[in-house]
Structure prediction request, 1136 residues.
Amino acid sequence: MEGVYRLVMSCPDRVGIVARVSNFLAQYNGSIMEANHHADLEQGWFFMRNEIKASSLPFGADTLAEVFAPIAADLNMSWRITDSAVKPQVVLMASRDSHCLADILNRWHSGDLDCDIPCVISNHDDLRSLVEWHGIHFHHVPVDPENKAPHFAEVERLIEHYKADTVVLARYMQILPPALCGKLPYRIINIHHSFLPSFIGARPYHQAHERGVKLIGATCHYVTEDLDAGPIIDQDVVRVTHRDRIDDMVRLGKDCERTVLARGLRWHLEDRVLVHGNKTVVFN
Amino acid sequence: MEGVYRLVMSCPDRVGIVARVSNFLAQYNGSIMEANHHADLEQGWFFMRNEIKASSLPFGADTLAEVFAPIAADLNMSWRITDSAVKPQVVLMASRDSHCLADILNRWHSGDLDCDIPCVISNHDDLRSLVEWHGIHFHHVPVDPENKAPHFAEVERLIEHYKADTVVLARYMQILPPALCGKLPYRIINIHHSFLPSFIGARPYHQAHERGVKLIGATCHYVTEDLDAGPIIDQDVVRVTHRDRIDDMVRLGKDCERTVLARGLRWHLEDRVLVHGNKTVVFN
Amino acid sequence: MEGVYRLVMSCPDRVGIVARVSNFLAQYNGSIMEANHHADLEQGWFFMRNEIKASSLPFGADTLAEVFAPIAADLNMSWRITDSAVKPQVVLMASRDSHCLADILNRWHSGDLDCDIPCVISNHDDLRSLVEWHGIHFHHVPVDPENKAPHFAEVERLIEHYKADTVVLARYMQILPPALCGKLPYRIINIHHSFLPSFIGARPYHQAHERGVKLIGATCHYVTEDLDAGPIIDQDVVRVTHRDRIDDMVRLGKDCERTVLARGLRWHLEDRVLVHGNKTVVFN
Amino acid sequence: MEGVYRLVMSCPDRVGIVARVSNFLAQYNGSIMEANHHADLEQGWFFMRNEIKASSLPFGADTLAEVFAPIAADLNMSWRITDSAVKPQVVLMASRDSHCLADILNRWHSGDLDCDIPCVISNHDDLRSLVEWHGIHFHHVPVDPENKAPHFAEVERLIEHYKADTVVLARYMQILPPALCGKLPYRIINIHHSFLPSFIGARPYHQAHERGVKLIGATCHYVTEDLDAGPIIDQDVVRVTHRDRIDDMVRLGKDCERTVLARGLRWHLEDRVLVHGNKTVVFN
Prediction:
C-alpha cells in the first residue's frame, strides 16, 4: 500500500479555506489521493480530510506539519497530520466474551487492520490463550468490586506503558472512571450492545426483549464521562421476531456488535472520524 | 384470490392443542392453506393462526365459529374467526403531511390492501382533494387547542358511524384521549417517526439530529393509553450521515414511515398480529 | 431553499485541479455549500462537484460558465453548471402499473422533488385520471405490437415538444429504440425490477422465484442501447422467503422499485450522478 | 439446553397431515417446543418441522422413528428424526483465507455452534496453527493442478474416515468433482462470494467492480454438480460506492460471507433447511 499523510482539520467556516489548503498542497506538488469536505451550515463549521501520497511531497510528515502550521493558525484550525507508515498503538480491553476480541484479532492477523496491538487487558483470565496465540501480551488485572481503584490504576499504568494511541473496549463491561476517560479524549472506543439512545446501561438485550422491539442493534461510540452518551461513530441493527428469546438476541446481537465495532475502529484508525460537539463527522 | 377463513387463537400452552384443532379441521375436510404456531415457553402461552380454504368446508364462517366454540372454551382460548370475503372497515386519520396517507390510498386503489376505507378524518382540510379523488369521504374536524374535547367527540362519532374495525393514525399528530383508545383495543394503529423506544414524544427527528445517531427509524404500533408505549408491530431504519440536516432526516424518514406503516397495516388486516402482554406475535 | 449553482466536472487526474477550481471560486468570493471529490486512481480520472451559494457570487450562472470555461478547457474537463433556480423538465413514461408513477407524483406534489413534470406519456389510458388530478398533461400513445415505429415517433415528438431534460421510465415496459436512447445520453432513467445483473430481461420476479433466491431487488440505471446494461445509479434489495409466491414478490418488489427510483431520480436531478465508462460516481 | 428431537418431513399435500402427526405426538404426550408448516400450493407439496421435548416422550429417538414410520409410509413422506443430543460431525474445508474458517471456529469454541468439528482439510498449510490451537486435526492435502484426482481421493477418504455428516466449503476455492458431490446430497455447504445468480464462477468481486453494482453480496448454498447453481440457503448484501476499489469490495464482502455462511450452517445443523426441487424451505 502506497504511504500517505492524512491532513485532518476543522475550523470556523469561511470563504477560501479549500483554496488555501489545496494551493498549499499543490505548491509542493502534493498528490491528493482522497479528499473529503463537509460544511456544517447550522454550526458554521468546516471539516476536511486529505490523503496525500507521501512520495509526492519533497519532505516528511514533520516538515509538512511545520510548513502547514501558519495556515492552520491563521484559520483557527483544530488539525492533525498522521503518517500511514507510523502504526497506531491500540490497546484492547475485554472481559469474558470473546466475540469482539476474536474478531478484531483475526482482522489484525489477516492484515485487514492497520495498527499494532501491544497488549490486551482483561479483568478475567479466560481469553489469555487466544490472545497469546496471536503473539500479543495479555494482562489479567482483576477487579475487586468493593474497591475498583487499584484495577483502574493498573489499567492506566499499562495504557501509559504501552503508549496507547487508542483504547478499545471490546465488551469490557466495566465503567471507566471519569478521570481516565478525560485523559484520552476521543481515543477510547466502546461497543454498546444496543441501538443507542435506546437501552442505555446494563442488560440492553433484556430491556429490548421486555419492550418487544422488532430490531436490535449495536452502537460504536467514543467514551466520555457520561455513560453511553459519547459521540456515536457507527450503528447497525438486526431483525428479531417473537420467536427470539433473550439468548437468541444475544447471539444475533454479537454479529452486529463485532461488525459495527470493526467498522468504527477502522474509520478511527484511518483518521476518518472528526468530533464536533457531541457528534461525529465520518468521512468514509 | 381464493376465499379463506382465518382462525386465530392464543391460550395457555399444554400438550395436544394442535392435535385438537387440526383434528377438528380435518374432520370437516378443512384445507389448511397456511398455518403458524408459536409457543412462548417463558410465558407458557401458545399462539396459532390457520388459514382455511373457505370452499373446502361444508359451512360458512358463522357455523365454523359455532362448532369450534366448545373446543375454544375447553382450552381457555382467546380466539377469533375472520372471513376474507368480509372486508374490514378502516378509518384513516391524518393531519397535513400526505406521504403516509397517499401511500395507503395508492395501495388500496391498486388492490394491494384488502379493506374498505369508508372515510378519512383530518384536523386540517389540506388533503381533502387527494382523498376525494379516490372516491372516499373526507371529514375535516378542526381542533381547538384550548378545548380538544369537541374534536374527539366528533372523531368518536365518525368512527362509530362508519363502523370502523381499525383506525390508522397516518401521521395524525394528535394524542387520542385514553377513553377513546380504550374503546378500540389493539385496533388503532399509529406510525411513530422514530425507532422506539428512542425519541418518544414530539419532534423525534430533531432529537435524533441532536444526538447524532447514524440510523433513524419508524415504528408501527398499537395505540394504548401510554404514549408511544403500545405493542410494536414493525420497525425499520434508514442510514443517515453527518451531511443530513433535519429536513433530510424528515425526507428520508418519510420513506421509512410509509413502508413500515403499510407493512404493519397489511399484517393487521390479515389477522397476522396477536397481542400478548405488551408485545406482539407477528405471523408474517 | 437558498439558490445554488452546481459545478460538476470530470477530467484526467493531475496535481492542482482542486487548487485551480477552489482558487477560481474564492477569487469571486464564492461560498461553497457542499463539495465532493473523487479520484479514480486506476483510471487516472478525477471527478468533482461543488454547490456554490448563488447569492455569494457577483454574477449569474451564465457568466460563471463563461469565466470558468478557460480553466475547464485547460484541464480537459467534461463539465456543466446548473442553476437550482431553473427547474429541470422531467417527462415520465408509464404503462399500467401505478406504484412508481404515483410515488413520483406524490413526492413532486409534496415539494420533495425539485423539477417540473410537463407531461406523462403512456401506452395505456389507465393512469390518465391520476396524472390529470395532479394538473399534469397525460398523453396516451398506444403501441401497435406489429409496428411500433409510429409510437416511438410520437414519443420522440412529445419529448422534444416538452423540452425534456430527463425522461423517467416509471415501469414503462417497452424497449426504447437505440436511436431514441442515443438522443438523450444519460438522461433517460429506468427502474428495472431485479438486482442487476441478475435476471435481465422479461419477468424478473418469475426468474427469481424459479431460482429460489432469498433477496429480490430493484435497479435504477441510465438507459443505453444495451438492454438493462447501462450505468447503475442505485440498487436495493428486500428479503423474501419460501412462503412468498410470485405475486408476493411482485408486491414486495414494488416498495423496493419506488424507493430506488425516487432516490436515483433525486440524485440525478441534483446533478450528483457522473458517468464514466459504464459506471457512475454518485456524490450523495 | 433442554434435549429435543426434530421431526422433519415433506410429502404431497392433502387434508389431515397435521392432524395425523399432531395426534401421533399427543398420544405419547409429546411436548412440541416449536412447529413450522409450509404448504407449497403450486407444487402441491407440504413441509413440516417439529421440535419435541425429548424428556416428554416415554422413549428415545430410535423408538420414535420406529413408531412413526407407518404414518410416514402412509403419507409418502421424505422424513428424518434427529436427536439434539447427538452432535453432527462437520468437516471444514478451506484454502488460504482465514475469515470464514476463523469465524466458524470462534463460534464453535464459544459454544454458539452445536456440532463436532473432527477436522479441517486444506490444500495449503497456512491455517494449520489456527486450527490446531482449537484442538482440531488439520490435514494439509496439496492439489496438483495437473492431476487433481489424488487430492480428491484423499479428501473423500478423510470425509469417510471422520464420518462427516456435513462438509463446509469455507472459501475452499476448488471445484469438487461431481461424483463426490453426489455422495453427500444436500450435505455440502458452500459460501459463494457473490449475490447469485450474479457473477457465477471465478473472481466475482472483479466482475462486480467491472459492472459497477451498488451492492455486493454472498450466497450460502448446497453444492450440486452444477457449479454455483445448487439450492440457496441464505444470501445477504452490503452497500458499496464508487470509492470502493476491488480490495475494498473483498474486505467488505468478507463480513457478508462469514455472516451468511454462519447463519446458513446454523440452520442446516438445526435441521431447519428442507430441499425441494432446486429450492429450499428454511424454517428459521
